[in-house]
Specification:
With 320 residues, the chain is an alpha+beta fold. 33% of the residues lie in helices and 25% in strands. Helix 2 runs parallel beside helix 3 and helix 4 packs across helix 5. The longest helix has 18 residues.
């Protein structure tokens, strides 16, 4: 099976179709229209076999995660996803693998009304690069740089599950059988918080998605906003699966430094808290206040039960 047959059989014919795509897969470029009053947000992420997913990960999970991590970046900017490009490198033509991979991609794209509009397919080590594009109303993009001293610090969902799921897959830790699938699914099938992101556009002063660990990503916000923060460790939301699977100290480490959560970390002025609760009431995602921004640039203070808490483990960094 040749390159263009692969593209036509597994991707072009299975792509969700949007009305704003004028020319899709099959030409030298895709052509799409951007509505008046909207800005275009663009993000790119690459997933590499053995680095971003274990080698025995299913094709459906690889496809889901490849798309989801890009949609999570759009969500962190308050963007509504629209289109993706796919650059796929595979060592050989495995029709069953391609069938399952394209099915996983199509399911997530259909759920979020996203169309695959182009890309490339090559022979090489297994890696997937997605470029995702979405819309943000003019003057409403969320950034990392708008937080102010006094803003409350929130996270969506629960933290640490995906990192524990990775250790389960790599057989570094044993967990109760009843929790295994839930933890591994948090690793393989992250949920991009798109609805929460678009809802936060008029409320949040800063936002980032948690991909490399909560502490590591929070520091990006502190640096960009020229603020500090106090984080209450005992307020960080942990799932029942994590609480019942590891000791409390280890659970804190997973929550603070574990990557792959793809939850949103965001800041909201204290006077907007009531509006925030009402706005997110129908988003089907829990939010938790875990701290507050301060006027001490770059200083991150951790507290446990209002007492200083020393913690030195960092989040994930490429090339570190």
């Amino acid at each position: 099976m040749k390159e263009f047959t692969i593209i036509d059989s597994f991707f072009k014919q299975r792509s969700y179709q949007r009305k704003d795509v004028l020319i899709g897969i099959g030409d030298d470029c895709a052509v799409s229209s951007v509505a008046a009053g909207q800005n275009l947000a663009v993000t790119t992420d690459t997933l590499i076999n053995g680095v971003h997913f274990p080698e025995n990960t299913s094709p459906q999970a690889i496809a889901h995660k490849a798309v989801a991590v890009n949609l999570s970046d759009l969500a962190a900017m308050g963007a509504e996803p629209a289109w993706i490009n796919l650059s796929l490198s595979v060592p050989k033509v495995d029709e069953q693998w391609l069938d399952e991979f394209s099915q996983g991609m199509r399911e997530l794209c259909e759920y979020y009304s996203v169309q695959l509009i182009g890309g490339d397919t090559v022979k090489g080590p297994l890696s997937i690069t997605i470029t995702a594009m979405g819309f943000i109303p003019e003057q409403q993009a969320l950034t990392r740089s708008g937080a102010k001293p006094g803003d409350l610090l929130f996270v969506t969902g629960t933290l640490g599950d995906a990192a524990l799921g990775l250790d389960v897959v790599q057989k570094k830790v044993e967990v109760p059988y009843k929790f295994r699938d839930a933890l591994v699914n948090r690793l393989n099938f992250p949920t991009p918080r798109v609805l929460a992101g678009t809802t936060l556009r008029r409320l949040a002063t800063a936002c980032i998605d948690i991909s490399d660990g909560m502490l590591s990503d929070l520091k990006h916000v502190l640096n960009a906003s020229n603020c500090g923060a106090v984080v209450q460790i005992d307020k960080i939301p942990l799932s029942q699966a994590l609480l019942e699977s590891v000791e409390p100290e280890q659970g804190i480490q997973y929550a603070l430094t574990g990557g792959d959560d793809y939850e949103l970390l965001f800041c909201v002025p204290e006077e907007q808290k009531g509006n925030l609760d009402r706005a997110l009431l129908h988003s089907n995602v829990a939010i938790t206040c875990i701290g507050q921004m301060t006027g001490q640039p770059g200083k991150l203070e951790l507290q446990l039960n209002k007492q200083p808490f020393n913690f030195n483990v960092r989040g994930y960094e490429h090339f570190s």
